[in-house]
Design a protein that fits this description.
Layout (H helix, E strand, L loop, with lengths): L3 H37 L8 E5 L4 E2 L2 E2 L1 H15 L5 E5 L10 H11 L6 E4 L5 H14 L4 E6 L4 H11 L1 H4 L1 E6 L3 H6 L4 H15 L5
Parallel strand pairs: 1-4, 1-6, 4-5, 6-7
Antiparallel strand pairs: 2-3
Helix pairs in contact: 1-8, 2-3, 4-5
Amino acid sequence: MRRPWQAALFGALLAAAIVTGVAYVAIGVLIWRHGEAVLAHAPQRPADAALVLGSRAFLDGKPHPCLTGRVDTAIALAQAGLVKQFVFSGGVDAEDGRTEAFVMQQHAQAAGFAGPMVLESASTSTRLNLSLSRPLLLAAGVRSVVIVSEPYHLWRIERLVRMSGFDQSFDVQYAGAATSCWRALGPLSKGALREPAAIVNNAFRGLLF
């Protein structure tokens, strides 16, 4: 039979696991619903540039569809006359050693986009995507921007934008990229499953609120 302290410890651990699981699911539902709302309300105002945030660059020897789908969304914005240039933000991917910004540029060129493209190739986080892209955007004369990423990512991006003062430098809109990863896996995609943990991490560091 368990000793009283063992039973108490087990109960505390079980309760903590339940609370953590409930919180994780709640955050997942929140960002999922927010992503769907952004998808339902595409940008309406023309902007100077689309800022496309990176993710894993390659999968099975080919450009990752989660990444190229973000670029495709930016191209659709350009075709609709809403943006004229792209800024691709993403550094070296630790999982495959490729530079996300370069992969995005190559995909845009292969898709026929011939407009100006600026590459930010040093960032390794969403926070750095914003902070390292800011001077490049300003140098390019950009004053309004559409930030493009997958829908699950946008709830955190919006708060990082506000907390960092990024929206004091630019008029910011958001575009959800309904990539093949989003359509096929939704909340079960790798990025979406990792996002609640990223939100908690950023919140504890005082980056979101």
